[in-house]
Amino acid sequence: MASFPWSATDVVDLPTIGTPVDTLTDLGAVPGGPGARLAAARRQGADFKREFVTTGRPDSVTTCDLVTLPYPTRFGLFRASRSVAPFLSITNRMLVIRWHDTDGRSRVLLFEPSDVELGKYTPYFDRLAQRTPDVLARRMVTEHETVLGHLARLGIAPEDVDYVLFDHLHTQDLRRWVGTTAHQDDLGGRPEPLLPRAKVVVQRDELAAMAELHPLQRPWYQPGTYRDVPPGAFLPIEGSVLLGPGVAVVKTPGHVFGNQSLVLHTSTGVWVSSENVIAAECLTPEHSRLPGLARWSREWGQEVVLNANSLETTADQYNSVVLEKTLADPSQDDPRFLQFFPSSELTGAWTNPGTNPTFSHRTLTHTS
Length: 368
Fold this sequence. Notes:
- This protein has helices spanning 34-52, 73-76, 116-119, 123-131, 134-140, 147-154, 175-178, 204-210, 293-300, 314-327; strands at residues 19-20, 60-72, 87-100, 106-111, 142-143, 163-165, 199-203, 234-237, 241-244, 247-251, 260-266, 269-274, 340-342, 344-347, 366-367.
- The protein is 23% helix and 22% strand.
- The protein has one domain (8-367): Ribonuclease Z/Hydroxyacylglutathione hydrolase-like (Metallo-beta-lactamase, Chain A, 4-Layer Sandwich).
- Strands 2, 3, 4, 5, 6, 7, 8, 14 and 15 form a 9-stranded mixed beta sheet that branches. Strands 1-9-10-11-12-13 form a 6-stranded mixed beta sheet, with helices on one face.
- It contains 10 helices and 15 strands.
- Helix 1 (34-52) runs parallel beside helix 10 (314-327).
- The chain is of the alpha+beta class.
- The mean pLDDT is 93.
- It comes from Streptomyces doudnae.
- Belongs to the metallo-beta-lactamase superfamily.
- GO terms for molecular function: hydrolase activity; metal ion binding.
């Protein structure tokens, strides 16, 4: 089984980034069980939010659609959905965030800049594609625009990108973004980094887990693609950090051990983005018209519906979603739902009956 050529200890001395957020501590260190950690998540989230909104706002946030693809309903809506459709559709989107540091230097962060072409070779999706006839696949998958195409449209040069951030590294192949140290047979050479200055901001916990994957994790990672990625391409962080005015990375473990969420302070309040859930209504399922969600939430006494393709630590993921729920402000379009922007958002399709979302954000846009 191909793996990282370096262990997590090899990145200990790499430079890190941001200002640590003392308000959000490691919930795993909270005395007691997962219920005690859930209560702590609510308290810490409220405390952090009060501090966070005083840090300012970024200059701009722009949404860029990358790909719409099928995803198993039993994963995306966990045990709650009563839809007859085995698959739903999700749209993976990139956010482009720009701000100025206190010294006046401009910064560009790409959140979820997936290399859609290479992401197809993730074991789970690769096997799914092999079982799906081409004519059906063309109906189920829509590629919208590439990362570089979006940057060109926005007038951002690739060399101006400072940071690359994912909520977790499922499906991600980073070689074209940050380059490699050796020839890559499948890429026809040794690729020069297309984002030459960009560093990948990632939790040390995820790097540690990827160094030796568990069988529950293997369908979702491409560890062999990291074999020749230089360790210096990463900016490993531990916990939650403030990156810039109104821009924070909050550790939200559970979906993977080193999961993290992007938190933004915009003109409409606080937004949170991750793939912990696939629809805003999964944070307030009592208001959902999706078949089964409201009833399931009521009968089981669970206030959120997880994106559960990878059950690494389910109780921790639940607690992390409640933390995200505590941070996000109500939507100005419909206050029953929160300003939670799924990095892969549930998207209605006629081929997937019973999976049309009650409410969708589709874009997250901010200009200061």
